[in-house]
């Protein structure tokens, strides 16, 4: 299976993601929004701690599905903030993590008003494609 990542001429440069991702896959994997809860249901009090937990949770979920970060074809990152510096900090933490390759594909980063769990500051939506 080949995942094709492209930035068509005429579209703005990106900070690492691609505007278009295409794949012919035998199986698609859709992860539920990955929340920053640890196995005991605890949540870190800070944004980057929560981001690290999301990385760990997403890697576990991908592994369970037989996928890796290289198989990811779409991500949507939700950050409960209107501060661009906080959104950028999450992006930098994610792209520099063991999950980083997943963000070279079609990706969206959104600032939102709130997320589902009390104190939750970040969530990650992931789609992967497998041969």
From TrEMBL:
Organism annotation: Amycolatopsis bartoniae
Which InterPro entries does the entry link to? RutC-like_sf, YjgF/YER057c/UK114
Its recorded name reads Enamine deaminase RidA
PANTHER family named among the record's database cross-references: BLR7761 PROTEIN, YJGH FAMILY PROTEIN
**The organism's place on the tree of life at top rank:** Bacteria
């Amino acid at each position: 299976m080949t995942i094709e990542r492209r930035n068509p001429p005429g579209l703005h440069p990106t900070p690492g993601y691609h505007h278009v991702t295409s794949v012919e896959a035998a199986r698609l994997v859709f992860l539920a929004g990955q929340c920053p809860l640890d196995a005991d249901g605890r949540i870190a009090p800070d944004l980057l701690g929560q981001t690290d937990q999301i990385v760990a949770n997403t890697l576990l979920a991908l592994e369970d599905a037989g996928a890796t970060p290289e198989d990811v074809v779409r991500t949507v990152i939700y950050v409960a903030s209107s501060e661009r510096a906080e959104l950028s900090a999450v992006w930098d933490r994610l792209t520099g993590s063991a999950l980083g390759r997943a963000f070279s594909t079609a990706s969206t980063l959104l600032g939102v008003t709130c997320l589902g769990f009390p104190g939750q500051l970040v969530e990650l939506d992931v789609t992967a494609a497998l041969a």
